Amino acid sequence: MVQTDRQQPFTVVAVPCCNKFVGDRPFHVVGDKYVRAVTDGAGAMPWLVPALGTPVDVRSLVARVDGLMLTGSLSNVEPQHYGGPASDAGTLHDADRDAVTLPLIDAALAARVPVLAICRGLQELNVALGGTLHQKVHEVAGRMDHRAPQSEDMEIKFAHAHDVRLTPGGALNALTGLDTFPVNSLHWQGIDRLAPGLTVDAVAPDGQVEAVRVTNLHGVDGFALAVQWHPEWRFAEDPPSAALFRAFGDAVRRRAARRSLAAA
Are 203 and 165 within 8 A, CB to CB? Predict the structure, then answer.
């Protein structure tokens, strides 16, 4: 686990859950790799937010946390949220997660809560701010097949698939010190029209957007970054991923320190 000063305030990161049936019983779930990336990579405590699909007082929620992390998922954002055509039959959706995450993103950004969004989380961020999505990137002319390899072996699924090219002077370029690095690829959906207020931070070799930052919030006193790949997988063994979670944890601790001063 990341070692932090014991005098620093206890930090909490909200992590919205997905709905999943285990057998015939419904569960609210977050993958273990995300939980450990928050605890061991960012040095914070994850607060799992159930995807209830009912109105949530998101302002009160963000007032009690120091960060927000949006995870990947097997489900896709419902196209009704960005004016897209109806999904193909059998497409997995999670309407209850959409109902929680989309307003939660707006509230977190308004409160300057640090945000790290991964895979589906990047897509949610783009939709929440007014962008649109390709539902099947692999069917878009000129695009690669960004879907996961057909294997039950997780090491194969999460193996590096292609490089990303970082925006010079962007957030990832600054925190990694790199111009390119290899990433995994396990997504069907991807950004089509970039939302207003977002800046591209990395692209795949085919031009598909792979990372974005919130233009006016990511800087010296803010953190709002999203990536299409899965940095949480074996993050400690991958220097760019470790740097990403470390930077997120630093931003979370800055937020916690500000909250402590405001409450004093």
Answer: yes
C-beta pairs of 82-90 under 8 Å, 24+ apart in sequence: 82/127, 82/131, 82/132, 82/133, 83/132, 84/132, 84/133, 84/135, 85/135, 87/135, 88/135
Residue 119 a catalytic site member: yes
The boundaries of the domain holding residue 218 are 12-263
For residue 232, indicate whether it is catalytic: yes
Q: Provide the whole-model pTM.
A: 0.94
Active-site hit among 146, 187, 218, 230? 230
Tokens 């589906």 appear where? 120
| Residue 152 is among the residues annotated as catalytic for this protein | no
Q: Are 127 and 102 in contact (CB under 8 A)?
A: yes
Instruction: Tell me the pLDDT tens digit for each residue of 224-255.
Output: 999 999 999 999 999 999 999 999 999 999 99
Our count of domains for the chain comes to 1
Residue 30 lies in a domain: yes
Residue 217 in any domain: the answer is yes
Element (H, E) at 68: strand 67-70
Residue 126: count of CB within 10 angstroms of its CB: 27
The catalytic position among 17, 119, 146, 218 is: 119
